Structures are given as structure tokens and as C-alpha cells.
Amino acid sequence: MMPVDGRSIVTADEMRAAEDVAIAGGATVESLMDRAGREIATAVRRLAGASPILILCGPGNNGGDGYVAARLLKEAGLDVRVAALSEPRTEASRAARHRWSAAVEPFAEAAPAPIIVDALFGIGLSRPLETGAATKFAELVETATLSIAIDLPSGISSDDGCILAEVPSFDVTLALGAVKPSHLLQPAANLCGKVRILDIGVPTRSRARVLDRPALTPPGPEAHKFTRGMVAVIGGAMPGAARLASLAAMHAGAGYVLLLGDAQGAPDAIVHKPFYPEALSDVRIGALLVGPGLGRDAEAQAKLDAALATDRPLVIDGDALHLIDPDAIKRRSAPVILTPHGGEFTGMFGRSDANKIDAARQAAVRSGAIVVFKGADTVIAAPDKRATVSRSASVWLSTAGTGDVLAGTIAAVLSTGIEPYDAASAGVWLHGDAARRLGPAFVADDLARALTAARASL
Predict the structure, then answer these.
(1) Within 13 Å and on the Cβ side, how many CA atoms surround 200?
(2) In what residue span(s) does the YjeF N-terminal domain sit (predicted)?
(3) What residues form the annotated binding site?
């Protein structure tokens, strides 16, 4: 079992294409099923210990994987039962069923077990389980001590995070070969429990990856406040938001933070000056942040226009996202990072039927900017269609000001000269790590200060 951080994210079609390549190279469907079943059996044995196991097998190749795992677990001396939703419908799954020498119970009559393994349906599911089967499925999963899903919990769509019908929550999901979008995208991700990857011998390729720990280096002996990164934050109608962003930039590692506006207070280390457009021309500014608490009136628009007119790397957040035309950003020569939440994203780019990863990619292509599509399943996308998806974030981030903290964090990393896509990814990681360190019921001020420990951990 392998952790998911840094791993490729593949769609159902990409996974099937990878399997086709493996078969063209000499593998067979049966050999791939045998490899998957062996990996599943090893993982289940490690997780289940000596507890009795019930494996639920469906009619397709996911069910075939289940039959292989059941046979190997039984041969290892474990107490294993199999319940089938229906007869196998593929040649490989029929062969796997034939090699299982014990009884197969009707799914509707299966008694509960301490360990439930869901091998009913995998990445090919496009419709919900029938009502009776769904009710029985939920009963078996919810009464188990440990529930394990193979590839995906049955009832989840593979590529878009959608739940096709009511699906019980699982403790562990064993992803076959690679992470799928719904292991990360909500609401499906919330039902997968801990996701681990099983190597089934099928190399995969994708331009999407799971967010990983960034490789940020500490300052060297020759460093000073400006080489550490200078961040300029433009304040506005709600000065507290700009203060939070400035505080976050400081704690995320910026060497110098200039707060332009009327937002007094915060640490004395933050330099306060009135806003004037000429201040933005300082060549030492490594990143410029506009939007937190900016307002949406004519004065706010003038400040945003002044920021856009500079040649400084720019992070655009909050109110500024309501004032800008995404098609106009492409005309800017310097890098831009946009950080919209769901409502801001829709306001800028319109509603999309695409999954969140593809929607963020489309927005990045349209704007020419790095797009950080925020949420419990934050997606970072670049105009070249690279994408990174964060694992589920702390639910306690759903409090006022945490978006301002994220914007300041990204600006701090960007100010050091790091490539914008990497800076956005590192900022999201630091933000999430700070939240995990705080536990429940924190406020945004706490989150900004916790960035010190998150940054120090790298």
C-alpha cells in the first residue's frame, strides 16, 4: 500500500488506456486481475488481522479481483466468505469465480461480518445500485468493524466526485494502480476514508497529480529581507482582511511585507504606508496581492487597475475577483495567480458541467493565469493543463478570513521567485498543514500564526 501524495490522478478512460498498453505489451486481463487480487489480499490481510472477512463481488472485473483476493486469503488460513450480487459477466471474472472453491452466498441474504470488502463495482459504474441492493449494501458496511472499498466505494462516479445514490462511508479505499479523481473531489472523497494505492503493474500517465509536500529551501547565510521576498498587500474597505493576508505572508516566510492602505495594527514588523500607485513600482516587490477586503467600488477598481498595470507577479483574491475580466488577464506579461472559491469562480468563468479539475484547467487556459479553485478539494491548474489536487482539507477552514490567509501565503512563496504554479501549490500545502496542526475551532488569526510551524517543517 502506497500513500497518495504526489501520485498521478487518472480518469477511468486513462486507466483503461494504461491497461490496454500493458496488454499490448504482453499482459492479459487474467494476469492483471491476478496481480490486483494478490495486492488486495495482501492489503486486506494486513488490515483485517484474524477477523472474519466478507467480500462482496459484483459481475465485472472488480468482482473478479474480489474472487482472486478471497481465494488467496482463504489459502492463507483466514475466515473468508463471498457474497455475489449476480453471476460474473466477463471472461476473466468467470475464471476467477471458478477458482474460488467455496460457496458463494446470494448478496441479498449475506450475514454481516467484522471486515467488509466492497468489490461490487469499480471505475465503470454509471448508475446507482438498485434500491434493495443499496439498502443491503449500506447495512453490511455500517455494521462492519472495518470497511474496505476496492478502487472506489460502489455507487460513486469515478471522474467527477459525484455520488450516484446514497453510499455508506468507508474506512479505507484501495485504489488500483492510481488515484482517481473521485478519491479527492467532493462529495465522493468524504466517503472514501483513507486512500492507499496498490501497485498492479500498470504504469499510468497524467498531467494531474495529488498535492505533495513542497521542496522549499531555507534562507542561506547571505540572505536579507528583500532576498527572502518582499510582498506588497493593497488594503481597502475592510482593512482586517488585508491585515490577515499580511500577517500570513510574514509567517509563511516573506522577508518584508508592505501593507498599503489604512489597515493599522498587526505586528510591528509589517510596514504600513498609504496607498499610492507609485508605491507599486518598487522593483524589490516580489509579489503583489490585491483583493482581500478591497471593496467593489470605483476606488477599489482604481487600485486593481494600478496593480494590473505593474510588471510585478500578482495574486488576485476576494473582492478583486468580482472586478476583473478574466479574458483581460492574458494581456498582462507578468504572472497572475487567481484564488477564487466556488461562488467567485462561477462569477468569473460561468457554470461548467466539467469536473472540478477540468473546470479549473479551462479557466486557466482562458485567463492565462494560475487558478487556485478553492474548497475542501482545492485544485491548482495552469494554462498548460497541469493540475494538482489537494487532499481533503480541515473542515475548520470554513471560517471567515482563511481565504485571506491563503492569499497571503501564496504571495509569500511567489515573492521568492519560485515558478507561479509551484508557488501556488506550496501555498496551498502550507495553508492545509497549518490547519491540521491547529485542530478544531481555530480562527484565521491562529491559522496565520501557525504557518510558522508549517514552514519550519520543510
Answers:
(1) 33
(2) 15-208
(3) 61-65, 118, 122-128, 151, 154, 241, 293, 341, 374-378, 403-404
CB neighbour class for 457 (10 Å; exposed up to 12, middle 13-18, buried from 19): exposed
Helix (H, G, I), strand (E, B) or coil at 260: strand
Using 50, 70 and 90 to split pLDDT, how confident is the model at 104?
A: very high
pLDDT tens per residue across span 37-74: 999 999 999 999 999 999 999 999 999 999 999 999 99
Q: Are 246 and 444 in contact (CB under 8 A)?
A: no
Do 194 and 265 fall into the same domain? Answer: no
> CA-based angle 64:139:184, to the nearest 5?
65
The predicted pLDDT at position 222 comes to: 87
| Residue 357 and residue 290 share a domain | yes
Q: Which residues contact 196 (CB under 8 A, 6 or more apart)?
A: 1, 2, 3, 4, 43, 172, 173, 174, 175
Q: What pLDDT, on a 0 to 100 scale, did the predictor assign at position 171?
A: 98
Task: Give the residue numbers of the binding site for K(+).
Answer: 62, 118, 154
Residue pair 329/369 in contact by the 8 Å Cβ criterion: yes
Which letter does DSSP use for residue 444 in this model? H
Cα–Cα distance for residue pair 367/326, rounded to 1 Å: 5
Number of domains in the chain: 2
pLDDT at site 125: 80
pTM (predicted TM-score): 0.95
Instruction: Supply the range of the domain harboring residue 139.
Output: 12-209
The pLDDT > 70 percentage for the chain reads 100
Query: What is the DSSP secondary structure assignment for residue 313, as one 8-state letter?
Result: -
Instruction: Return the closest-CA partner of residue 147 out of 123, 126, 119, 124.
Output: 119
Binding residues for (6S)-NADPHX: 61-65, 122-128, 151, 241, 293, 341, 404
Residue 90: C-alpha distances to residues 30, 62, 118, 151, 167 (Å)? 11, 10, 18, 18, 25
CATH of the domain at 240: 3.40.1190.20
The whole-angstrom separation of Cα 317 and Cα 338 is 6
